[in-house]
Amino acid sequence: MKVTFLGTGTSQGIPVIGSSHPVCLSTNSKDKRLRVSVLIEWSHYTYVIDCGPDFRQQMLRANCDKIDGIIFTHEHADHTAGLDDIRPFFFRQGDIPIHAHGRVLGELERRFDYIFETENKYPGAPNVIKHAIKNEAFTLGNLAVMPINGMHYKLQVFGFRFGDFAYLTDMKTIAEEELLKLKGLKVLVLNALREDEHISHFNLNEALELISVLQPERAYLTHISHLLGFHDDVQQKLPENVFLAYDNLQITI
Ligand SMILES: [Zn+2]
Ligand SMILES: [Zn+2]
User: Fold this and answer.
1) Ligand 1 centroid, distance to 212 Cα (angstroms)
2) Spacing, Cα 224 to ligand 1 middle (Å)
3) How far apart are the CA of 117 and the centre of ligand 1, in A?
4) CA geometry: angle at 225 spanning 222 and 228, to 5°?
5) CA–centroid distance, residue 63 to ligand 2 (Å)
6) Could you tell me the pTM of the whole model?
7) Mean pLDDT of residues grouped by 10 in the chain (253 residues)?
């Protein structure tokens, strides 16, 4: 399985528009972060987790010419606002499967009503096939995927385990019984916003604590704010098996 980090930034991305913060002005490409998303490829399958406002640019940058579907963690705009840009995939492939909690599917229908329109639909609008995810294993391609239920302050979010790989973002708390699903991982991806506490995201310490409880072979941090600091400085402070993810990073599991 190959995982490409399409974006590793928090909701505003880095640089933040109009910001003169040193991290926003950094010339290191690892300090430039699009909104958070990953491309997951195995056998001949290609899936994307989340479809934020940078989706078009991310698909171009990754040379992605086919997707088998999109899986959504939750409905926040930094994870969903790019849905219209599935059009090139729809024109080539036909209806695009989307997988999300029923509540998130409802939100997408409300925000992108023209995509879900069934009568007098504009011919240029894309079609999707809705798949509701419950907190139980579901199948993508030839693989069983296990949702991990978490809380983003008061909003439910799903993380996902694909074999020995798990991807969690926008989490602040995870119940004990859900943590049991994350034992024995080779790679864990986890959100870590900044050093200061945040009401709806793990900060760096909370992410590192969870990593030390779960003991994956390797962990990668994502959904990063410019306030966390320069990539190279933060990386030096991390434990040996923990890495700050950056855009275009590819890992093999
Ligand atoms: Zn987010
Ligand atoms: Zn969010």
Assistant:
1) 23
2) 10
3) 27
4) 95
5) 27
6) 0.97
7) 98 98 98 98 98 98 98 98 98 98 98 96 96 98 97 98 98 98 98 98 98 98 98 98 98 97
